[in-house]
Amino acid sequence: MKRWIAILAAIAIAAVLPLLLSPTGYWIRVLTFTLLFAAMAQVWNIIGGLANQTSLGHAAFFGIGAYTSTILVLKFGISPWIGMFAGGFLGGIAALIIAVPTMRLQGHYFALATLAFGEVMRVIANVWTSLTGGPVGLSVPFVPPSIAAYSFKQLLPHAYIALIALIIVTFIFEAIRRSAMGYRLRAIKENPAAAEVIGIDTTKVKLQTAVISGVLMAMLGTLYAQVAVFFDPDTVFSAASISIRVALIAILGGVGTAIGPILGALFIIPVEELMNDLFSSGAAGLSQLIFGVILIAVILWRPRGFITVFDSLMARFSNKARS
Amino acid sequence: MGGVYAVISIGLTLVYGVMGIVNFAQAEFLMIGMFVSWFAWAYLGLDPVLAAPLSFAVAFGIGWLVQGQLIARVLKAPSVAQIFLTVGLLIVIENGSLLLFGSQFRSVTTSYQTMSLSLGALFISVPYLIAFGMSLACGLALWWFMRTSWFGRAMRATAQNPMAAQLMGIDTALMYKIAFALGVGLTAFGGAVILPYVTVFPGVGGQFVVLMFTVVVLGGLGSVAGAVVGGLAVGVIQALSSLFFPIQLQNLILFIVFIFVLAVRPQGLVGASR
Amino acid sequence: MTILDVRGISRRFGGLQALSDVTFSVPKGQIVGLIGPNGAGKTTFFSTLVGLIRPDSGSIQLDGTSVVGQKPHKVAALGMTKTFQNVALFAESSVLDNVLTAGLLRHDVETARREALICLDRVGLKSVAHKLAGNLSFPERARVELARALCTGPKVLLLDEVMAALNPVEMQEIMDLIRSLRDDGITLLVVEHHMRAIMTICDRILVLNFGRLLADGTPEQVANDPVVVEAYLGRSMEAHK
Ligand SMILES: Nc1ncnc2c1ncn2[C@@H]1O[C@H](COP(=O)(O)OP(=O)(O)O)[C@@H](O)[C@H]1O
Ligand SMILES: [Mg+2]
């Protein structure tokens, strides 16, 4: 009961917050990207947290989503809303293609294979110029603003769409976690041989997870394309700024928990922005350097993520309240 | 090129073989090695190839600290923490050097840079040949060290069973430090010997990272002999694909070989299963 | 009626013939003991039955269906599962969740939860249902193994040393449980080192030595079989040398 109140309160705050920010300003942009990256990290969390497969290749699906919807608008004038589902479909297929050969891999091996897959997609997008425009990138064409055409004058609607996306993927994550599939995934994570012996089709469950995560990630790619308006292969298929970043957000926040990716994004995205702002005049690389230091510090200090800080604070708080 | 690939990758495989950690930051030590060698050339007038031991020493020192202070703490942590610690290291080293040295490209000029030997119809460029020779020497030295010295045996014991090694009186924490320092040192050494024909800048590691991983995975993660074979194999794959494909597609082929090998034979093509 | 029919099962590990030409069949509702010295191949045999290890040759029929080459989850769905000798629980999950997960093979989450509680009750662990499996004592964990296997709703249940390290009272409880499972129509194969326990509960005993089936008969027949006695004595004398 208390949980539900907390959740509703959080949603309410999130729903009001965009209205308080200047609709054309800088902070609404930061907020939109924070929400979008939280949603991406949540989607990563489905495979990275529930199935415990550290994917470093989620940019592959993300980029597929961004390109699919944008190419469909450009070439056929199809609304990005439909393009989003087309992208999701292709993202699911891509996830299947990479999941089949890599499913048996664990830990570092899986991370390496998925990292390489993301790079494969980046190279393909760079080379297949006739379809993607190659390294030059694509611009989402301007169409008269309307909800049906997924086109808006301001960022405000994008912020709300990102918020709704975050809420939806968080519910999906939580629903999977509590469902039979969630139990099966935990079993596979903790002991795959025992899981098989008690009747879990480990192959099928892992494939399902990979596909769900791939589909959703691709759909978020469309959202990104619509906000960013312009992108190129090295942005949307980037290992560093997409694949590793979303994994990082989930990990810093607390992997395998619904709140983790949200905490992680709330921390990382604004901090990154802040540092870029503060040091943009200074030497190149400083903000990234600090970011790396923070990453190392958090991993050494809280290997399970911020959620543990949160938890221990809550515990201390409720202890005090009781005494 | 194959020989050089082998040396820079041996470092990676050594770290994995002994500690079970894939060091995503390994290629950054290649960059460090290149920078050390460049500065030795620019300010001390040392030939980059002769500066290679210096590169080795600097990277060895950094590796020693990194292992002792950072990586030692996540040896028992879940693989996610290990992966992201070394990713963090990668970010720090790359951007640290960007901060220190700026983003410009630096290269050296040597007397033998443009020379090449002709062997019948085959032309072999001298810097490549020197790099190959140095790498071979270095690889042999390591092999000999691991085979015959007490350290080598202690290290292999640690790799196979850290608990038992500890009971036998081996300081495993020390072994890890040596292994890591040695591993990154070797990679830095490789960085120095390729300096005559590769320009150095803070992002140079990124150009080699896939290559290194492909070499190591081809040979079997953790197998030194495998890394040598893998290095040669990647050299050959590259040479062959450069005959037929444009440069971007060469990388693509490398990636696909990489995924394929991981999927089909994670223990490597030559390595025995661990 | 035969529920399990095993013909000519063999399996090599490198130079070691872990199983050679094992053949027998079990009628429904029997309790069959499988004994033999350490390293005889008992665990390997169980793993082969459930599909974790693929035999080099031979056939296995479960209730008329061939299961050789099937994945373990298929075999479990067909009605045969095993416990792990060196316990393979989901250590970070609660005891209840361990067992519940097995129940999902045939039920939805809520029904599986009810089934799991019944299974835990039967092995006497209902009181620790909400503890983390990893925090239990070894004998308790072995019983969770049993409850988990039971919750898949098996026709044939393979128990690999579930009584190891139990005290006599607990052992008696497990023996009673095994009998009651048999009364429910479950066929059981039981690997156990405790001879008295095996001799009392089993209708029939198979003796495995160096991967070979040495004897197959009632407890009395096996106990008086000179070949078996020699195999055991020979082995133990070697050990004392
Ligand atoms: N995966 C495996 N690879 C190689 N040898 C194995 C493997 N599993 C079991 N063995 C060997 O097979 C023999 C039988 O082992 P096991 O079935 O565990 O015997 P038991 O359960 O009767 O004590 C032993 O010698 C063991 O070392
Ligand atoms: Mg056994």
Key traits:
heterotrimer, B: about 270 residues, mainly alpha, 11 helices, C: about 240 residues, alpha/beta, Rossmann fold, 4-stranded antiparallel β-sheet, about 25% strand, binds adenosine-5'-diphosphate
Q: How would the blueprint of this fold be written?
A:
The complex is a heterotrimer of chains A (323), B (274) and C (241).
Chain A: H1 2-20, H2 26-50, H3 59-76, H4 80-102, H5 107-127, H6 129-132, E1 138-139, H7 156-178, H8 180-190, H9 192-197, H10 202-228, E2 230-231, H11 233-236, H12 239-253, H13 260-279, H14 286-301, H15 307-322
Antiparallel strand pairs in A: 1-2
Helix pairs in contact in A: 1-7, 2-7, 2-10, 2-12, 2-13, 3-4, 3-5, 3-10, 4-10, 7-8, 7-10, 12-13, 13-14
Chain B: H1 2-19, H2 26-44, H3 52-69, H4 79-101, E1 116-119, E2 122-125, H5 126-148, H6 150-160, H7 162-167, H8 172-194, H9 204-219, H10 224-244, H11 247-264
Antiparallel strand pairs in B: 1-2
Chain C: E1 2-13, E2 16-27, E3 31-35, H1 42-50, E4 57-62, E5 65-66, H2 72-78, E6 80-82, H3 95-103, H4 109-122, H5 138-150, E7 156-160, H6 168-183, E8 187-191, H7 195-201, E9 204-209, E10 212-217, H8 219-223, H9 226-240
Helix pairs in contact in C: 3-4, 3-5, 4-5
The complex binds adenosine-5'-diphosphate and magnesium ion.
Radius of gyration of chain B: 18 Å
What is the helix fraction of residues of chain C, given as a range? 25-40%
How are the strands of the biggest sheet of chain B laid out side by side?
A: 1-2
| Count of separate structural domains of chain C | 2
Number of helices of chain B: 11
Low-confidence stretches of chain B: none
What name does CATH use for the topology of the largest domain in chain C? Rossmann fold
What's the pLDDT, averaged over the residues of chain C? 88
Provide a descriptive summary of the structure in words.
- The complex is a heterotrimer of chains A (323), B (274) and C (241).
- Helices cover 77% and strands 1% of the residues of chain A.
- Chain A is mostly helical and 323 residues long.
- Chain A has a single domain (24-322), classed as ABC transporter involved in vitamin B12 uptake, BtuC (Orthogonal Bundle), CATH 1.10.3470.
- The model of chain A has no long low-confidence stretch (mean pLDDT 86).
- With 274 residues, chain B is an all-alpha fold.
- Chain B has helices spanning 2-19, 26-44, 52-69, 79-101, 126-148, 150-160, 162-167, 172-194, 204-219, 224-244, 247-264; strands spanning 116-119, 122-125.
- Chain B has a two-stranded antiparallel ribbon.
- In chain B, strand 1 and strand 2 form a beta hairpin.
- The radius of gyration of chain B is 18 Å and the shape is globular.
- The model of chain B has no long low-confidence stretch (mean pLDDT 78).
- Chain C has helices at residues 42-50, 72-78, 95-103, 109-122, 138-150, 168-183, 195-201, 219-223, 226-240, and strands at 2-13, 16-27, 31-35, 57-62, 65-66, 80-82, 156-160, 187-191, 204-209, 212-217.
- In chain C, the strands form two sheets. Chain C has a six-stranded mixed sheet, sandwiched between helices.
- The chains are: A mainly alpha (323), B mainly alpha (274), C alpha/beta (241).
